[in-house]
Specification:
By secondary structure, the chain is α/β, with parallel strands linked by helices. The protein is 27% helix and 24% strand. This is Peptide synthetase.
Length: 245
């Protein structure tokens, strides 16, 4: 369906080849996730080089919603963004944590209400429950916050919907439960399930895996390994490198 390049923070950027199966599974899951507000005006905030842009576009179109475009100046300026959300009656917003925090801080010194906004989805960075973010949600009753997790090689594999009351939020919200047709395992160095409370590496399997890295067979074999828990012929797991309990 598309290649998506990793950030290159650990070396040369690698092109992960995501199949149509992965994108279709994510969009189908997202339609069920946003069932409370299926036809929504969604802001196209993300760059096309960021895989969240596919959730913005195809999630909106598959539901019969509207995709609201934005220019780079507004994207970079939280004050302009806040006004833009109101003016264009945006209902669904995907933002990485840094941009979301910046928006919440900007709203602190102004009218924080965004009357039409119903859902915020954050991904790409670890979410933190800050005082500014809690205040922004208190000013917008009924606004939901959904935390998505997944590396480029799997797009998104888990999600966690935060409580309606911001005072109940944990400082570091969890990554949540796996999506439909996705499997997650916390394994030790021998690929055995780690006991509860014991750190292990997070492995992801199922429909959302990339086929591998474009023209990089050696590192593909290193990161995409046979799935010993799957009855599916050729089943694989992706080694995320993230440590979980």
């Amino acid at each position: 369906a598309y290649p998506i390049y990793t950030s290159g923070s650990t070396g040369k950027p690698k092109g992960a080849a995501l199949p149509h199966r992965a994108l279709a599974n994510i969009v189908r899951w997202q339609l069920g996730r946003q069932a409370a507000h299926p036809v929504a005006r969604t802001l196209q905030f993300s760059s096309l080089s960021f895989d969240v842009s596919f959730q913005e576009m195809f999630g909106a179109w598959a539901a019969g919603g509207t995709l609201v475009l934005i220019d780079d100046e507004t994207r970079r300026d939280a004050e302009l963004l806040l006004a833009y959300l109101r003016e264009h009656r945006v209902e669904r917003l995907f933002l990485p944590f840094a941009a979301l925090q910046n928006l919440a801080e900007t709203a602190e010194g102004a009218d924080a209400r965004v009357p039409d906004l119903k859902e915020i989805v954050t991904a790409g960075e670890a979410l933190r429950s800050t005082p500014q973010l809690r205040a922004f949600h208190r000013a917008n009753p009924g606004l939901s916050l959904d935390n998505h997790y997944g590396p480029s090689e799997t797009h998104i594999v888990s999600a966690y919907l935060l409580a309606e009351d911001p005072e109940e939020w944990e400082l570091l919200p969890p990554i949540g439960a796996p999506l439909e047709n996705v499997r997650l395992y916390v394994l030790d160095a021998r690929m055995n399930p780690a006991p509860l409370g014991v750190p292990g590496e997070l492995y992801a399997g199922g429909a959302n895996l990339a086929r591998g890295y474009l023209a990089r067979p050696a590192i593909t074999a290193e990161k995409f390994v046979p799935d010993p828990f799957s009855a599916e012929p050729g089943g694989r797991l992706y080694r995320t490198g993230d440590v979980n309990l």
